[in-house]
Specification:
Length: about 210
């Protein structure tokens, strides 16, 4: 196994549901996100949904920034090779640990507004990393089959299970997340900071399939 401590990988794979202090009442917010496109509106509604999830799961707050700019990307021979939908950043030194999610609101090449379903799916995916670090208290948040099962459980709890990808297995090597930034001895800046390197295309890393 490369890059992910065995204990974190096995714990992540073995847990398929989110543990709640009480059922989150966030379906209305999730459905509202499926009707919004403007970055400011998505940030306000998305932050409201994160607050509901954090409170229901007993987690510290997670700050959302929706950047009204194209996804960071890289081209190769004139074609899109890499892009990132968003990422999660954890501040290790704070007590309790604080998290930050950043999502790009425009597509990489055409600079069109990110589809509502994709935006909501990305938001739930990144919050699942927040849950892993601050709820399960894992020292890594690998993309295991259990991780994706928790996202599906979360979406179903909110009544939007249709936004999540189908079941799929990941090898330990592919489970290493590329959308998590874990700085060392670094203060978390409002809205997060850009990753130190290009995050690999989440077409494979996030959901293992092509998106339009």
């Amino acid at each position: 196994m490369t890059g992910v401590p065995r204990s974190a990988y096995e714990r992540s794979k073995g847990l398929e549901t989110v543990t709640w202090r009480h059922v989150p009442v966030g379906r209305g917010l999730a459905l509202t996100l499926l009707e919004q496109g403007a970055a400011a509106a998505r940030q306000q509604t998305g932050q409201g949904l994160l607050d509901v999830l954090d409170e229901a799961a007993g987690l510290p707050p997670c700050k959302l920034t929706v950047a009204d700019r194209p996804q960071r990307h890289r081209t190769r021979e004139g074609r899109l090779a890499l892009k990132t939908y968003g990422y999660y950043r954890i501040a290790w030194e704070s007590v309790p640990r604080r998290g930050s999610i950043r999502i790009y609101n425009l597509t990489a090449i055409r600079q069109q507004v990110l589809a509502p379903k994709v935006f909501l799916e990305t938001l739930l995916h990144e919050w699942a990393h927040h849950y892993d670090f601050t709820g399960l208290e894992l020292d890594r948040s690998p993309h295991t089959s259990g991780f994706y099962a928790r996202i599906r459980d979360l979406a179903q709890t909110l009544g939007v299970g249709f936004v999540t990808p189908p079941n799929h297995e990941l090898t330990p090597a592919r489970a290493v997340p590329d959308d998590v930034v874990t700085p060392t001895l670094d203060r978390l800046k409002p809205g997060g900071v850009a990753p130190p390197q290009w995050i690999r295309d989440q077409v494979m890393g996030l959901f293992g399939r092509t998106r339009g």
